[in-house]
Amino acid sequence: MPTIYSARWEGPSILEKNAANVIKLDVEHSGSAASLTSGVLYLYDQGGTALVDGVAGTVGSGTFTSATIPASVTQDKTLGKGYSIRVDLVIGTETIKCYNDAVLAIARPQNPVGQTDLVNRHSEAANLLAGSSNLQGYLDAAYRDVLNSLYLAGVPYWTWRTPSALRPVIIARSFSILFLDYATLLQGDDRYYALSRHYNEIYEREMNGLRSMIDVSETNTLEPAATTGSAVILLSGSSRRRRTVRNDS
User: Fold this and answer.
1) 110 within some domain
2) Total structural domains within the chain
3) What's the pTM value of the predicted model, to 2 decimals?
4) How far is CA 210 from its chain centroid?
5) Same domain for 39 and 128?
6) Angle at 118 between CA 113 and CA 124, to 5 degrees
7) Kind and range of the H or E run holding 90
8) What DSSP character marks residue 131?
């Protein structure tokens, strides 16, 4: 039976239009980096046409890194979802094909929360720093969780133009993960476990009320009613449905 590897896509691949792009993929098995022999990249547009057709990348320590995709490849392409990536990897005598969907956007979103925010918000975070050089891993995990939840709910988060709207959600998710980690290490239903549950409840509540100004066409123009502050994305209720609210009065 073929070996099943962990091809660790962390979310949809966000490609920047009119910019050079590089695709990376980490592959593991049995807790160790896979011994990759070689790898090639394919990139398909929304109609299934190959934009990058089997171009070799580099491999090392279980990581595939594509050759740079030139800016010219995406300059005439339509923004949005519907792009597809395939990475073919040779591992020993096996060849595995790893697919991921991709989005073409004007810019790749950045995390609006840093370690300073966590330390300033909760003194316990500063106390736990003694056991780790930094809290970046928790921030990264929280950011990925939030963006993937939005993506699976059909929300085009790459068109959001109020990144600070994500701060309460990411902060709460970061604390939830952080304190649960230390609760596990310290065993039992202790203070850290209680804090983790507390922040997880805040995370769920904040996710249900997320809203942001948006630039649907990514032409640096917000929704028509943006000047009144009423063109927003709402994720409401358990289904977190996407809807646009306007109030032009």
Assistant:
1) no
2) 2
3) 0.85
4) 17
5) no
6) 165
7) strand 80-91
8) G
Residues 6+ positions from 205 with CB-CB distance below 8 Å: none
Q: Are residues 98 and 38 in the same domain?
A: yes
Is the residue at 1 inside a domain? no
Give the count of alpha carbons within 13 A of 218, CB side only.
Answer: 17
Confidence (pLDDT) at 238: 39
3-class secondary-structure state, position 54: strand
Same domain? For 219 and 126 the reply is yes
pLDDT in tens, 163-176: 999 999 999 999 99
Residue with tokens 């073919």: 88
- Quickly tell me which residue has 């449905």 as its tokens: 241
Host domain of residue 85 = 6-105
Q: Which of 240, 212, 211 is nearest to 153 (CA)?
A: 240
Measured between alpha carbons, how far is 125 from 134 in angstroms, rounded to an integer? 10
What distance lies between CA 19 and its chain's CA centroid? 19
